[in-house]
Amino acid sequence: MKKLSINGVSLNFIEKNIEQECAIIFLHGNSHSLRTFSKQMESPLLKNYRLVFVDLPGHGESSALETYSVKILSQILSEFLKTLEINKFIFAGHSLGGHVAINFLKTEIKPYGLFLFGTPPLKNPFDARAFTPNPNAFPMGKSESNYVEISTLMDEMNYVGPEKAIAIGDFLNTDPKFRLGILEDVTSFKNEDEVELIKSFNGAVMFLLATKDSLINNTYISQECFSNLSQVHFNEIEAGHSPHVEMDVDFNRKLAEFCNKAFNEKIEIEFKNDRQHERSQNEQRN
C-alpha cells in the first residue's frame, strides 16, 4: 500500500500494472474500503489496465475530514489523480463511490467513462424513489449501530464468509461522522443534479444493474432518468448490491468489455480531432 498527502489529507491506495497507460480508478461505497475490490486486483481480465484502488477520506487507512460531502470527496480525488499524473482513466464506482465519480465531472479533468454499480444518480431536489425502502439499510445513515444491525446489513448486501467479515470490519473502522455527514449532504438541496451531469458528459456511461439489489431502484435508473439517452448504457448482472464481490468473474468481464470499448472510442475521437486541428493549422499557414 502507498500513502499520498493531498492538501493535508492522507490517502491510502494500491496500484497494479503501473506500466499501463490507461487506468481504472476503483471507488468503494459508504463505510467500505479498497479491500472490497480484492477480487479485481489480480484479475487477468483487467491486466491491460493500470488499476488504482483508493480509500476515500474517513475510510480504511485514509485520514478523516472535519466535514464530508460528495463535492469535497471529488475535489480531493481530482488532486490525487493530478498528482499521480493519470490522464486517461475510467471510474468504476460502487454505490457512494459512483456518486463521487459523477460529481467528479464538475472538476477540471474528465474521465473517459463511468462504470457505475449500486449507484442511482441523485436528482436535485432529492428524489427518494432512487432507493428501495429497506429498514435493514438504516445503519448506512447512522453514526453508531450495534453488531447485529451491521451484520444484517451485510447479509442484505449478499456478503458471506470472509467477505462479510471484511465488510463488517470496514464498517466499524469508518469515521462515524461520515455516515451522518454524507446523508445530510446527499439529501440537501446543495448538490449538483447528477442526472444532468451525466446528460452533459460526452464520455461513455454504463450502469451495471444488479437484479437482486434490495437497496436501490433499478427501474428509477433505466426508465426515470435515462430512458432515451443514447450514450448511457445498461447491463444486468445476477447479484445483490455488491456484484464485484458476489459475481466477480462476470463483473470483471463486463468491466473489461466496457473499458476496451470506451477507451478505444475516446482515443479514436481524440486522434480525429488532432488530425483535423493539424489540417486547419496547415491551411492557415498556406
UniProtKB/TrEMBL annotation:
Pfam families: Abhydrolase_6 (PF12697)
Annotated ranges, domain AB hydrolase-1: 24-250
Keyword terms of this UniProt record: Hydrolase
Gene3D superfamilies registered for this protein in UniProt: alpha/beta hydrolase (3.40.50.1820)
InterPro entries referenced in this protein's UniProt entry, alphabetically: AB_hydrolase_1, AB_hydrolase_fold, AB_hydrolase_sf
Alphabetized GO MF terms: hydrolase activity
Keyword Transport on entry: no
Domain of life: Bacteria
Protein's UniProt name: Alpha/beta hydrolase
Species this chain originates from: Bacteriovorax antarcticus
